[in-house]
Amino acid sequence: MKTLLRTSYLLLIVSLILSSCSTVDLYEKTATIPGHSWKSSYKPSFTFTIKDTASTYQLFLVIRHKDKYNYNNIWLNLSVKSPGQDVAKTFRIDKQLGSDEKGWLGTGMDDIYEFRKELNEELALNSVSFRRAGDYTFTLEQIMREDPLNNVLSVGLRIEKK
User: Fold this and answer.
1) CA–CA separation, 38 vs 107, rounded Å?
2) Do 57 and 106 form a contact (C-beta atoms < 8 A)?
3) Do residues 23 and 148 touch, judged by C-beta distance below 8 A?
4) What whole-number distance in Å separates Cα of residue 119 and Cα of residue 155?
5) Does 15 reside within a domain?
6) Beta partners for 75?
7) Burial 49-85, CB ≥16 within 10 A → b, else e
8) How far is Cα 30 from Cα 112, in angstroms, rounded to an integer?
9) Looking at residue 108, what is its pLDDT?
10) Whole-number Å distance between alpha carbons of 85 and 46
């Protein structure tokens, strides 16, 4: 009887472990900014493949910066090249990274902060959707007045299913 009970518990634990191990439909990639000084000529590009066009996706901007970053916001050009398009659509976005009242809006450890902000509103306003299967390429370009833009460690994109 004890052996049967132990075997049942063991099977239950193994089945729970196996059922909790599932793939996450997610893409995240960041590009390190050379010397923590983002020149406007450095335009990191990210390509990911959409297979499931029936799903809704969320796209996030990911920025890591130092506490010494000089501004409360960042201006970027985001270019999107969809499957079957020869020309990328480019649009300007302004993301608030902090405020004088609240400080940095991202999560921080020591003097490094990570900021994740959804970009779906910007994509919808510019008629970008994931309705075609294939490779989508996103390119980020900093368009701040300061060039190079100091104290930016990395930038990237994250995509996940809703």
Assistant:
1) 21
2) no
3) no
4) 14
5) no
6) 94
7) ebeeeeeebebbbbbbbeeebeeeebebebbbbbeee
8) 15
9) 83
10) 16
- Going residue by residue through the chain, which has 162 residues, state the pLDDT in tens, using 9 for 90 and above: 556 555 555 554 555 555 444 444 578 999 999 999 999 999 999 999 988 888 888 889 999 999 999 999 999 999 999 998 989 999 899 999 998 888 888 888 889 999 998 888 877 756 677 889 999 999 999 999 999 999 999 999 999 887
In a domain, 1, yes or no: no
pTM to 2 decimals?
A: 0.79
The range of the structural domain enclosing residue 122 comes to: 25-161
* Residue 7 forms part of a structural domain: no
Measured between alpha carbons, how far is 145 from 126 in angstroms, rounded to an integer? 24
Query: How many CB atoms sit inside 10 A of residue 45's CB?
Result: 15
Here the CATH number for the domain that contains residue 57 is 2.60.120
Number of domains in the chain: 1
- Does any domain span residue 8? no
Q: What is the DSSP secondary-structure string of 76-118?
A: EEEEEE-TT-SS-EEEEEEEE-EETTTEESSEEETTEEEEEEE
